[in-house]
Design brief:
Length: 192
């Protein structure tokens, strides 16, 4: 598939199962992520590969962080939090390791990590895997950041769940661009 087809046919898959990517495919996914645009060549992204039993450990971390945020959370809600990482055979956590002493604004470093995440999603699609980019409260929880061994300054931009598609993903129309054209102070909506 060419790059345009990959971009226009990729969709978030909500039901993922084994098999997940091989070691060689994971290495290729991370290489694709590392080719993201990067102002200042900071390479601010950090990729954490979570699979196998490590998914259960991530679930325990997410549940503990949820309990700390909401002490009265029900056991059912805690168990749902604990099971989240089991929704796919592979999770790639993408974080921006912010260099605050850099002349590059933090937002640009976060955007570079987001571009890296998108590259990983496109590469997974190219290999024939389904994927979904998730965030939620764990992505913004300092205890999760700390529990993952990331520096305090790091920002998680996404949990990329990757695996074989067990049910087809809903596709959005590629014609809905929400594009605007700015010409001499006026704008015109270019969406179809």
């Amino acid at each position: 598939m060419d790059v345009f087809e990959a971009i226009t046919t990729r969709a978030s898959a909500t039901a993922l199962t084994e098999p997940g990517p091989s070691d060689a495919q994971i290495a290729a996914l991370l290489q694709a992520g590392a080719c993201a645009p990067d102002h200042g060549r900071l390479r601010p992204w950090r990729f954490l590969v979570v699979r196998g039993k490590a998914r259960e450990e991530l679930g325990d971390l997410m549940a503990a962080a949820a309990k700390a945020r909401q002490p009265d959370l029900s056991q059912d809600a805690l168990e749902r939090e604990r099971r989240k990482p089991l929704r796919a055979p592979l999770i790639v956590i993408v974080a921006a390791n912010l260099a605050s002493q850099s002349k590059i604004p933090e937002i640009e470093q976060i955007l570079a990590a987001g571009a890296a995440a998108q590259n990983i999603l496109l590469a997974a699609h190219g290999f024939g895997f389904g994927a979904i980019w998730r965030t939620g409260a764990p992505a913004y929880d300092p205890e999760v950041v700390k529990g993952l061994g990331l520096p305090e300054s790091a920002r998680i931009v996404g949990f990329l769940y990757i695996g074989s598609v067990s049910s087809p993903a809903a596709r959005r129309s590629a014609t809905e661009t929400n594009a605007m054209e700015w010409t001499q102070g006026s704008s015109q909506n270019l969406s179809a």
